[in-house]
Amino acid sequence: MDFMNPEFLTVGMFGLLIACILLGLPLAFTLAAVATLFGLIDNGWNASGLFDIFANNCWGLMNNYTLVAIPLFILMAQLLDRSKVAEKLFEALYVVMGRVKGGLGLAVVVVCTVFAATTGIIGASVVAMGLLAAPALLNKGYQKELTTGIICSAGTLGILIPPSIMLVVYGGLTGMKETSVGQLFAAAILPGLLLASLYFIYIWIRCVINPSLGPAISEEEASKFSAAQKWSMTLKSLVPPLALILTVMGTILAGIATPTEAAALGAVGSGVLALFNGALTGKVVYESCVNTLKISCMVMMLFIGGKFFSTVFLSMGGGDVVVDLLVGGGLSPSMALLVMMAIIFFMGMFIDWAAILLVTVPIFMPIAMELDFNPLWFSMLVCVNLQTSFLTPPFGYALFYLLGVAPQEVKMTHIYKGIMPFVGLQLVGLLLLFFFPDIITYLPSVFFGS
Amino acid sequence: AKREKFGVDSRHESSTRVKFKPSDEKFRWKMTMPWSKGLLFYDIAVHFCDSVRLATAGRLDIKPFSAGEIVPAMQTFDAVSKGSVQVGHDWAGYWKGKDEGFVPLGDMPFGLDSEGYNIWLYERGGLELAQELYGNFNLQVLPCGQTGQDMGIFSNKRATKMDDFKGMKVRTVGWYMDILNRLGAAATPMPGGEIYLALERGVLDGAEFSAPAITYPMGFDDITKYVLSPGVHQPGSQCYVFFNKDAWNELPEDLQEIVKICAKETQLWSYNWIQNLNSQAMAKLTEKVEIVQMDPETLIEFNNVSQKYINEIKEKNPNAKKIIESQEAFKKDFENWRNARANVTPWSHETYATGRTN
Amino acid sequence: MRSIIAAIDSFNEKIGQLNSLLVLPLVGVVVYEIIMRYLFNAPTVWGFEMTMFIYGVHYMLGLALTENREGHVKVEILTSRFSKKGQAWFNIIGYALLFFPVFGMMAYAAVAYAWTSIGLLEVNNTSWAPPIWPVKSLMALGFVMLFLQGLNTFLKNIQMLREIRQ
Ligand code: NA
Ligand code: NA
Questions:
Q1: Range of the domain at A286
Q2: Chain A contact for C30, CB < 8 A?
Q3: What is the value of ipTM here, to two decimals?
Q4: Which of A58, A82, A130, B66, CA to CA, is 20 to 30 A from B240?
Q5: Nearest 5°: CA angle at A114, between A122 and A206?
Q6: Alpha helices for A83-180 (secondary structure H)
Q7: Domain limits at C113?
Q8: 3-state helix, strand, coil in chain B (%, to 5)
Q9: Tens of pLDDT, residues A104-142
Q10: How far, in Å, is the centroid of ligand 2 from the Cα of A21?
Q11: Is residue A301 part of a domain?
């Protein structure tokens, strides 16, 4: 049976997935259904064997400690939302940066960059910003596409700027000294800041060219407050979120808590802020809990469906198909690099980062060594590329997280359109890292002297 | 009386009588394991699959999948037991929740070293005891991989005496965690992904992992100052390959025999491969960390508390009791020869000359 | 049919809402672990496991509620252009072909998985060694609830077609 060869199955699996996604059924169910069909073809229609593997995988997800941070960070964002802390901050930033075109959007980039240094996952940043910043920006007349683009891209910095779950997993996978987790953390700081700067510059330029995308406030509104008032408003409104960021980041840096544990402290902290603002009623707590459940379940259902899909993909030998594609022809080193990056980028459109890491890193890392690439440099190119996978349609976690929490009027099409320019910026960032490797290797050499 | 030859190869007689019909049936199986690709344990599992494919000329093709590719690391046992995957590779101690008897099959504090496992498993009925236990879960088992002694605890606190360990926040799991807690340490089973940062930031004082070559890529030496040696918690890790029994029974006899030999070949290869890598890894590790040795009284105290703990396990679990007592009997019986042969540890001449005999 | 729909909705909503409160003890256990380790130098042997059990049960028992509230991510590029009737037909066919076989089998497999664990009175592979058969049973319950809720989505769409016709 020739049509059962792994190449055919790999292509067929992705093809059917794309077709089924368009049916408009919940994506997680679609992933599971496509995985089931191909899993059965692969294992000779042994349904009980396949679903036993799926059950085992679900149990494995229930025992994944790093994912515990997801409900905790979502609860933190929910309580923070009720405490009105963010609204005050955004009001203040609005007044201060209001005369700058796109000013509030720029503020989101700054806040997200700081937030990225407190959390290892992206769900939290995007969800928090989607709840806090999206309504604020839309109220001030920002374009929906630009708003969603800013939040998704800046919110996703959390997976690149350390601490980062992705880097921890990467370090464990390569099993190489040169790409230990500590080295990767040090190497990721500057690329993360580079991307943040690219977003910043891009938003500013676009809003200067076309102020209707991110309007500045009128002169009269701006003149309502004196300079001193503006400053005191900003400083006052900055204290609570900074205290919260310090709670999360400070406890990690001071060795009090692990990143996952810091998420719980963040939830407590935002509860305390809500309490100070008189917003911590039983009703608020209950509503926060129900919302937290709904959003966590959306994320976890995707994890379940995505897990089924990647399990079947790998089990069919899809990973080997990728290798053959790569080492089949005699490519020059930069061509090979380009092909590897293209493969990761393409896979990133459809499956989640962990599955991509599992498939590609063990295959690509030895090839990169053979081609004499600096392992840390190569790894960081991979990681920035993987960060992009959160943003690329049709399957991008950041996009779904945002859709889950953004105001009703924001539709998936806005998000898909809005993210495109930022995906372009990611590619610009990748090019810069390619031509200026020092951006990656400088800090590790300072910290570890290598 | 005239003395006979002292030993008998128990397999020889049966092997001459067997008449095989060579099979030409082809088998494509999958193997799952708790190892990610960065760990040398993964290479050991792959080595076994390679050996089988080479020796059977591809008639039995076992495709290895690392942790999480088919099922999560800790679901290896269930998936093979149920037959969803045909083959699994493991360190037996992971299945402690199924039966505490699995722990001494994999190694326990002050348990057997690699030489001990080889003798106990192949010559003293250990393999039969292992088969009894795995067999309860519809599995066929073979010893398949040794990594020798684990390193001690990577730590930012220097500790050589009992008092130094008191209150120390150490990450470890299983029996050793209970034992360390009884010794006054503050042991925690923090999940794997959290260890590096926790150690770096001081959430933890120390953590243990595996043999030097396996531990080296973790980079713990970048963030700690000492290794508290020796690795009393695992003197000689023992791995196994296991098959779903229904799948195993479908294999023709000739393939079964090849698989048995390949498992033994992997057992031999892995130990030597890892030990040689260990010395190379130690050279690099000791550029950054100092190896500190616990003093003898502390070791004896560790041993006493461990033995007491193990005795309690024996009380509670008859399978663990049977296996541990078999190992203890071996240790006792072997002491006469261990004693007689002592003091010629093959140190270099320069080291031996300093008086280091054992 | 209306009463079946209402019964399933109400069952899954009640369990889901009660279960949503689990996130509070989840915070509590994590914070307790930090305090015991950092302030009292006495980390627990059970904290991390307890954390994972609570988090696991929390989302498993909420999958059905999320389905009821249309919280699972969809890509509505194509279907948003359809008429109400067209959307209903799409959902009916989609759930019949994709959802029922897969999540019916999944619910069955999860129950079988839990049943094996109950038979062994299985405990965890850890030092604390708590029984895990109750947690696996709750995982199975989560999938059964999700299957029922998917059945409800299917029924609701049929109901909608009927109403359009009238
Ligand atoms: Na981060
Ligand atoms: Na993507």
A1: 67-316+376-448
A2: yes
A3: 0.92
A4: A58
A5: 85
A6: 85-97, 103-116, 122-139, 144-155, 165-174
A7: 2-165
A8: 50, 15, 35
A9: 899 889 888 877 776 666 666 787 788 778 888 898 889
A10: 14
A11: yes
